[in-house]
Amino acid sequence: MTSSHSTTRPFIAAYYFPNYHPDAINAKWHGPGWTEWDLLRDARPRYEGHEQPKVSAWGEFDESDPAWAAREIDLAADHGLDCFIYDWYWYAQQGLYLHDALERGFLQAPNRDRLKFALMWANHDWLNIHPANYVNTPETLAKHVSVAELPGVWDYIIEHYFSRPEYWTIDGRPWFSIYEIGRFIVAAGGLNKARAALDDLRRRAEKAGLPGLHLNVQVWGFAVLPNEIVSRDPASLIAALGIDSTTTYAWVHHYDLNSGNFPQGSYAQAARANMAAWEKYAAELPVPYAPNVSMGWDPSPRTVRSERYDARGYPWTAVLEGNTPEAFGDALRHAIAFAQRTTPARPIVTINAWNEWTEGSYLLPDTRHGTAYLERIRDAVR
Questions:
Q1: Which has the higher per-residue pLDDT, 139 or 170?
Q2: For the segment 105-114, what is each residue's pLDDT rounded down to a tens digit?
Q3: What string of H, E and C letters represents the secondary structure of 256-310?
Q4: The pLDDT of residue 321
Q5: Is omega for the bond preceding 211 within 30 degrees of 0, making it cis?
């Protein structure tokens, strides 16, 4: 880790959760036309002072409509964002899922050249938590793909995304992230097979005329690895897999939500825990670490509202209280300074999230704060 200081403008990338448009698989699971707007609309306060429901200042819009996508792009670009990192899904049997926000929306928007896009493969199993009830273990509705299916996944990604001029690249190499690298290793059948699968993606990208691949992983999820497969040490795994960089998806991955007075967690405590995690990963990992700033956290809309809200694990978790625009802006300034110090040539900051409405983490304007969070980004990057 370098200790140099830089004034290089940071690259700001916000995660985009694309479940606010009609989808054929959702229609099968929840009924025609269902989206997570339904969950948000039905949300209610779970304790005194709880801010629910969250209400979009734009109303309930279809993110797969190019006109709405263009409006999102302009709003993001005008406030200092450089990229949407789409949560991207491909499941066994179902195949592509929730892809129309990107393919029909963003990639058909007339102003798409104002913003870059990239993929984070959300390779977790999809659970029936929309909403989850109090007693039953959520049913697994879709499972991650096997290693035998990966060549088809790789070819689709390269052809439909990496080849686009709007795709985010580093030194010409497409930036591609994997959400749960531990699960990827298990699904591949071990570390060596996982490395071979990733090398196959690299070779396919080069065969398509690209100079290679910039492979990023989220620093969490290593605990799903059985001890008999491989060490869980992140540094050794990252080196063995040829990973190029790391980051974090959300603050709750490095903060104990049970440390507060349930159901009220602390945004300030989460900020301190994550700032400590930034230093730890920058010092211990063999590749650059991009800090993450979360706007908030509140998954209560994903629970049945007529049932008790007790500490039962996700989505019954504590809510991060105190996530004001000012607190968010302060955390973002710290993240930018950290990135400029540790990776001065190419500082990168990720944000959770552009539109995770039902997890209480979003930058899109609501009826209470308007564009206040986006204004903090604009001010910080200036």
A1: 170
A2: 999 999 999 9
A3: CHHHCECCEEEHHHHHHHHHHHHHHHHHHCCCCEECEEECCCCCHHHECCCCCCC
A4: 97
A5: no
